[in-house]
Amino acid sequence: MHPSHFSRPVWRRPPRVSFAGEAISAPERVDLAIVGGGLQGLSAAFAAARRGLSVRVIEARGLGEGASGLNGGQVIPGLKHDPDRLLRHFGERRGEALIDFASGTADAVFKLIQSEGLDVEHDRSGWIQAAHTPEAFTAAEERNRQWGARGADVTLLNGAEVALLTGAGGYVGGWLDRRAGTINPLAFVFELARLATEAGARIATGTRAVRLRRDGADWQVETTAGHPVSARSVVVATNAYSDGLVAGLARSLVPLHSFQMATAPLPPDLREVILPHGQAVSDSRRIVVYYRKSPDGRLVFGGRGRMAEPKSEKDWKHLQSAMIRLFPALDGVSVEHRWFGRVAVTPDHLPHIHAPEKGLLAVAGCQGRGVGLMTALGPRLVDYIETGDPAALPFPVSPIRSIPFYALREIGVGVTIAWYRMLDGLEG
């Protein structure tokens, strides 16, 4: 994700704890080089450095200028697929391990904030997946049943309960997952960077990794700093911003633009009825919309946008229309912030872990669960790097598979989004 030129995200406040990166000023050798300074890269850097490994993080932009700092701030456990489907797909042993890992991803975020005393605004009031059709409510019933049977703190909601908790109209029901919550994602990125550097990791911002090559037992990471970094192991944590650094990786992902906006602080009467208890919400539409309330009382509303970069406020019209459809009382309330960014999804809607060669790892595809998923995944990547044991990873290592007719993806995705948006409109 990258900030729009229209306005800055509502939570882009200067972190109270300053961060100064450490440039690559000479050739280096480390145990672990990490390309990408988002949540995945920083979580792995912190875990590795705390265990005594020497770590260099190479970030092409500034901290928090990707999806990790500019996402919707929702911390949602689990995956896109429900437990029973994961068991069918991965088998009982691997499936159960994956379900256990996915169930605890939100815990990883909130426990880290508490145990390390991180300066991160957060609220663990839960997440509502709101159903807009009877068919979607049936799916919510099944999802609630499966997670409830595993002891998760979840509750099925009828239409009236969803209306009371969200203040939105048009939903027939849904379910509430109390394991989830919200955070200030940008502050979380900066605090993870602080933890990693205090543990001994070195982070270079504004520095791009331009080439990877084997050099005996090590990897050489060539950078725009003009100095290489030699490392025993490399983690490529670039996700939606993957390029040609790892052959085929970018072509295995579908990049999408996620548009977000934030209203002016809501007047007191609307604050009392719109998300009065602080839950985050995503709905069941094909083109999902998601929203939360910021600590200063704004409604932060997001959804899929056009494939091309936006050129004017009109490019957010579809999002504003969706917001007014759900919250008619917001008609006339000004929108003060608009921004967009890039996310990546995989064809099977599961995160992928790749190990193309010995000592090289690449992970991509968050499917809207990135805050918890990538925070929890970092230490597991380090486990694998240290032991070489595939059981240390929650997902099996898979080969990189380029998407067929990748060059036509933008046209196909654009047509699909337009078609799904029309169907969502017909369903209300």
Structural notes for this entry:
The chain is an alpha+beta fold and 428 residues long. Helix content is 32%, strand content 24%. The strands form three sheets. Strands 1, 2, 9, 10, 11, 12, 18 and 19 form an eight-stranded mixed β-sheet that branches. It is globular and about 65 Å long.
Q: Which helices and strands occur, and which strands form pairs?
A:
Elements: E1 28-35, H1 39-50, E2 55-58, H2 67-70, E3 74-75, H3 83-90, H4 92-103, H5 105-115, E4 122-123, E5 127-131, H6 134-149, E6 154-158, H7 159-166, E7 173-177, E8 181-183, H8 185-198, E9 202-204, E10 209-215, E11 218-223, E12 229-236, E13 254-263, H9 268-271, E14 280-283, E15 289-293, E16 299-304, H10 317-326, E17 335-345, E18 352-354, E19 360-364, H11 370-387, H12 409-427
